[in-house]
């Protein structure tokens, strides 16, 4: 979450008038994440909501898919934000020149110090998400899968070595390997594609909600699991924590067992997932506007993670 677009009191009042909610008494920006502008909205009856303004990276044509997915997942047992519909029955509106939507507020906190118990909760929740989304009828291809990585790299390649000498050549070699060997015949369906710690809420060790579905798409389930493993199972210095990985993978498989082919593909998928986030972080590192209320994330963290996966002998390194 982040804030790129300012919202005036007058514009917010006009926006809120379309909903059957109490009077707004406060709203404040949420300065986390990198994609959209988000605000915490509170009303005089004590209710809280999240207001999201969709910024330029989000294709407005995709928004009905995202909002419909959240409704579908919630209806199939996953705790996630529900789009609030106005009196006209519409959830998607416009505010301050941006597409915008109001959502239910989920109680809980994102973990600041990730434990093995948190990882187990995430593994179970991700498998539940995969099963809950299996019969969502609409499809959305993953624009940030292998075919999209080289164009994304091309947007930063000329300056990549400013971040680390030799980075451009290393990434180019990785992309060539993925283009030759990426699997296409593994089980797939709706994936979250961005299940980082700031997108999962907990109450104690139990998951209380999953948020931020704006990278969700149709792709390989095991690739989504690899993204989560990268996000949750490495320590701040990028040391791999095999205990956390064991708990995450075991909890996932207790709900949705992996096939032998999925297990065998995990090292390549995890490496690719690391490079995918390296590329978006690299672009943001080089292009975040001065003065934006957002902190670009270090792309080299994911280079170190990719190198770890490249150096292992097989999925046994993950505790499988």
Write up this protein.
With 320 residues, the protein is an alpha+beta fold. It folds into two domains: 9-104, Phosphorylase Kinase, domain 1 (2-Layer Sandwich), CATH 3.30.200.20; 116-318, Alpha-Beta Complex (Aminoglycoside 3'-phosphotransferase, Chain: A, domain 2), CATH 3.90.1200. Helix content is 41%, strand content 14%. It has helices at residues 9-16, 63-75, 116-132, 146-154, 160-163, 167-181, 221-232, 242-255, 260-287, 300-311; strands spanning 24-29, 37-43, 48-53, 93-95, 98-104, 188-191, 200-203, 206-210, 217-220. A five-stranded antiparallel β-sheet has the order 1-2-3-5-4, with helices on one face. A two-stranded antiparallel ribbon has the order 6-9. α3 packs antiparallel against α7 and α9 runs antiparallel to α10. The longest helix is centred in the C-terminal third of the chain and has 28 residues, at 260-287.
Q: Which sequence of strands runs across the widest sheet?
A: 1-2-3-5-4
Poorly predicted runs: none
The count of helical stretches stands at: 10
Please name the CATH architecture of the largest domain. Alpha-Beta Complex
Beta-strand percent range: 5-15%
The ordered H/E elements are: HEEEHEEHHHHEEEEHHHH
Largest sheet: 5 strands, antiparallel
First and last CA, distance: 34 Å
- On the 0 to 100 scale, the average pLDDT is 93
Return the CATH class of the largest domain: Alpha Beta
Helix and strand content put the structural class at: alpha+beta
Tally of discrete structural domains: 2
- CATH homology superfamily name of the largest domain: Aminoglycoside phosphotransferase (APH), C-terminal lobe
Number of strands: 9
Radius of gyration from the CA trace? 20 Å
Helix content: 40-55%
CATH topology type of the largest domain: Aminoglycoside 3'-phosphotransferase, Chain: A, domain 2
